[in-house]
Each structure stands twice: as C-alpha cells, then as structure tokens.
C-alpha cells in the first residue's frame, strides 16, 4: 500500500496529496522573513489501523498536523493625536531626529483649519 492509496475513496485527497499541501505551508513559513530561521517545523502524520474482530478487514483512520515557526514579535511606537473633531487617532511615532531630505508626515498634514502649509 502507498500513501497515495489512503484517502482516495469518495474522491478525497490522498494522504500523499495532503502531505504535499502541508509541505508547501512549511516551505512558505521557512521563506517568511518574519519567522525565526533556525526553528524546526514539523509535519506529523498519524495512521491508525483498526482491525475487524474477524480479522478479515481493517479500517485506516488518519490525520495530519503541521507545526510552523511563529512570527517574530516586534515593537512599534505609536503617537496618540487629538483630531480637530476632538476624537483620538493613533499614528506610528516619527523620530525627532531627521535625516537631511527626509519627509516627516507632519510636514504634509493640513493645519487645524484644513489648509496645507505652503512650501518654504
């Protein structure tokens, strides 16, 4: 018996095809730069054989489980800003130190009356 024979009844995907789907998920997880490169990934296949009492038939049950590397955590500073309507908005914090030629979002936001500042 081959893995490609298991699960083919009733036009379902075979265990081999399910493995290939899960392997693709693992490869995508490995290629994701947000995951830890050294973490191990796991594809676990369980095949359970249940014989009939007469020993002339058996039933196979199976499942497949994949464990992927988690996304790395990070940190983003946020500014809480009061809008002209009195509501609060959050925006990513911008460093107060500027690189020459760098644009700051505050340079292109409208004034309180909705007018954009003029070029200097």
Automatic annotation (TrEMBL):
Disordered, as annotated region: 92-120
Organism superkingdom: Bacteria
Residue ranges, compositional bias (Acidic residues): 110-120
Species of the source: Acetobacterium malicum
Name of the protein in question: Replication terminator protein
